[in-house]
Amino acid sequence: MLFTSLEFIVFMAVVFLAYYILPKKCQWPLLLIFSYIFYFIANPKYLIFILVTTVSTYLISMKLEKINESMTAYLAKNKETLSKEDKKAYKGKMKAAKWKWLLICLFLNIGILSVTKYTNFVINNINNFLQDGAKLQLVDMIIPMGISFYTFQTMGYIIDVYRGKQKAQKNPFKLALFVSFFPQLVQGPISRYDQLSKT
Question: What is the pTM of this model?
Fold first, then answer.
């Protein structure tokens, strides 16, 4: 669906009208539904990639939030009895646990981005050094629409949760809207969670 096509103009007009007709509490679910419809119309296979990013980011952000909350509660409860060295050791232990989960999320999602976008680029560069009979076959692979935008956007979000700068979104569907919001993802820019969550 091209931005200049009649289909896109009609699609946007329907979303725009429905958004302002519906009560405020129904506006974000409407945007989520239409974002997924947009990706489905473009190519149903795109949904697999965006769902993996959404689910993995949600689950790991909740894990990081749980660690952040338990650390804060433990330090507050034991602030009178813990020595400075004990506090430092405990914080180091919790930071290591959070770092592990952050790396899992980063490797998974940046890995998906790298494989889908750069596999054939790497193969082409290798083939430049090979003789004709030894050249590697290019991979027939789709590049999901907006994958760079939503990958870097969600990685920014998960890093903010890791650092304690952002509370994890407990509603998976609201996080799904942040990841999939189609007007922003297909043309950018990459936004932080706190910028989009207020709208």
Answer: 0.85
